[in-house]
């Protein structure tokens, strides 16, 4: 049987083909490949950087669908099915809106694939594919090392993606992770995590954990195991980890360069509205947390979510000033997005505040980085515009140089200086390339 794995892109700009320069290895497809029996003929195509050869033989196509890639995923699936090829979809989006995805697929995989992928493959070989398979979220990759040979020649950034844990214990209103994992946090065995690091060549690892700091003791155990490996690593972590001095030291000792961290808002009322528990302690506009991060030399990617009911044009501009003042290695000024099946989405439905018929991810008029709902104290156009202004100002060349010259973080070591110039310019370009992008990839046939 010929199995084709596909990583869909978001879409393209209005007048040109979009190639994602900041593309990283699609870890989920590497795991699926590892779970696939050895007698299956397997190929992977990445829609972000190469054309999909629909004309080549295939018996089954599998893709992980995110909300942002849903429209493009449906285009790909419909073209394969038109040619008589069966399609299976999995991931967060099919888990939350299975009825929508089922119209474009022969089968759905709901939940995590580790416990049921072999059954699906066996059914496909027999021509008896079920409409739906379910796998309960649980421990990542038990007994499975990611197949990284499928990444060769794709031009990915020089960082290896891995996973130590899944899920998060917090209940942020806008977040799909809490809904998907039901506030549970699942850990991969440390010896298997170490073995995977040792099995690949790169010395920079990105743990794609939803919140690697959700279980602090587990994080400390991981750090102790990483120290002898002499690697550098980054992940995603909640700000409350700064209250644990032992964890901070262990992260630094184990080669951590820094984290993507959800600041979300500099306004206490908005943090409370988001139910962002790890940010709700001693609220001194994050001065304490930032000071501790800088003391350890961590390069911080500050993630802000903008458009809460307490947000205004002026508060968004103040957020930009805050990010520049603190010289973050990078900052994301994200518009608050109503992901389906989250409490925030349901609230907007009750209040009648959705735009684009409530399905912005499918609407032909929606553009990447546009507001998809009516904010309380701005128009949607004002929210879209002021967030774009913040991205533009933060990514100006003078800002780039100002942020780089921080002696406590970006200039602390040669390795940190190298990481700054290796990745920040790429992410800077992608910010502007993606703005206003059309979802989907019309005319692909």
Could you write a compact summary of the structure shown?
This protein is α/β, with parallel strands linked by helices and 445 residues long. It is built from 16 helices and 16 strands.
Question: What does this protein look like?
Answer:
The chain is α/β, with parallel strands linked by helices and 445 residues long. The chain folds into two domains: 2-135, 3-Layer(aba) Sandwich (Rossmann fold), CATH 3.40.50.280; 157-434, tm_1862 like domain (pyruvate-formate lyase- activating enzyme, Alpha-Beta Horseshoe), CATH 3.80.30. The protein is built from 16 helices and 16 strands. Strands 3-1-4-5-6-7 form a six-stranded parallel beta sheet, with helices on both faces. Strand 6 (107-111), helix 5 (117-125) and strand 7 (132-135) form a beta-alpha-beta unit. Helix 8 (216-226) runs parallel beside helix 9 and helix 12 runs parallel beside helix 14.
């Amino acid at each position: 049987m010929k199995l084709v794995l596909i990583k869909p892109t978001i879409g393209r700009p209005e007048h040109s083909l979009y190639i994602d320069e900041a593309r990283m290895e699609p870890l989920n497809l590497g795991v699926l490949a590892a779970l696939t029996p050895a007698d299956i003929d397997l190929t992977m195509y990445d829609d972000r950087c190469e054309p999909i050869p629909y004309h080549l033989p295939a018996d089954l196509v599998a893709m992980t669908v995110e909300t942002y890639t849903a429209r493009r995923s449906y285009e790909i699936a419909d073209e394969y099915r038109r040619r008589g090829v069966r399609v299976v979809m999995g991931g967060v989006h099919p888990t939350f809106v299975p009825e929508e995805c089922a119209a474009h697929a022969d089968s759905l995989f709901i939940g995590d694939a580790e416990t049921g992928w072999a059954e699906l493959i066996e059914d496909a070989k027999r021509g008896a594919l079920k409409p739906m398979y379910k796998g309960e979220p649980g421990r990542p990759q038990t007994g499975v090392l990611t197949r990284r040979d499928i990444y060769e020649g794709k031009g990915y950034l020089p960082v290896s993606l891995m996973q130590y844990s899944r899920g998060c214990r917090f209940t942020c209103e806008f977040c799909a992770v809490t809904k998907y994992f039901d506030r549970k946090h699942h850990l991969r065995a440390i010896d298997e995590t170490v073995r995977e690091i040792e099995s690949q060549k790169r010395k920079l690892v990105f743990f794609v954990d939803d919140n690697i700091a959700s279980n602090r003791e587990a994080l400390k155990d991981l750090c102790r195991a990483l120290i002898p490996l002499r690697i550098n690593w980054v992940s995603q972590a909640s700000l409350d980890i700064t209250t644990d001095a032992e964890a901070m030291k262990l992260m630094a000792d184990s080669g951590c360069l820094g984290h993507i961290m959800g600041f979300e808002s500099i306004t206490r009322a908005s943090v409370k509205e988001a139910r962002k528990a790890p940010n709700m302690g001693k609220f001194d506009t994050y001065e304490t947390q930032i000071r501790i991060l800088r003391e350890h030399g961590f390069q911080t990617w500050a993630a802000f979510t903008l458009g809460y009911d307490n947000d205004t044009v002026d508060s968004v501009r103040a957020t930009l000033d805050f990010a520049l003042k603190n010289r973050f290695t990078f900052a994301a000024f994200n518009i608050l997005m109503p992901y389906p099946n989250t409490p925030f989405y349901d609230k907007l439905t009750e209040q009648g505040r959705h735009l684009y018929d409530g399905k912005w991810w499918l609407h032909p008029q929606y553009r990447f980085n546009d507001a998809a709902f009516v904010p309380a104290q701005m128009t949607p156009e004002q929210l879209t515009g002021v967030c774009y202004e913040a991205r533009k100002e933060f990514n100006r060349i003078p800002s780039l140089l100002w942020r780089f010259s921080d002696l406590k973080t970006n200039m602390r070591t040669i390795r940190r200086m190298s990481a700054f110039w290796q990745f920040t310019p790429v992410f800077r370009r992608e910010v502007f390339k993606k703005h206003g992008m059309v979802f989907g990839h019309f005319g692909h046939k």
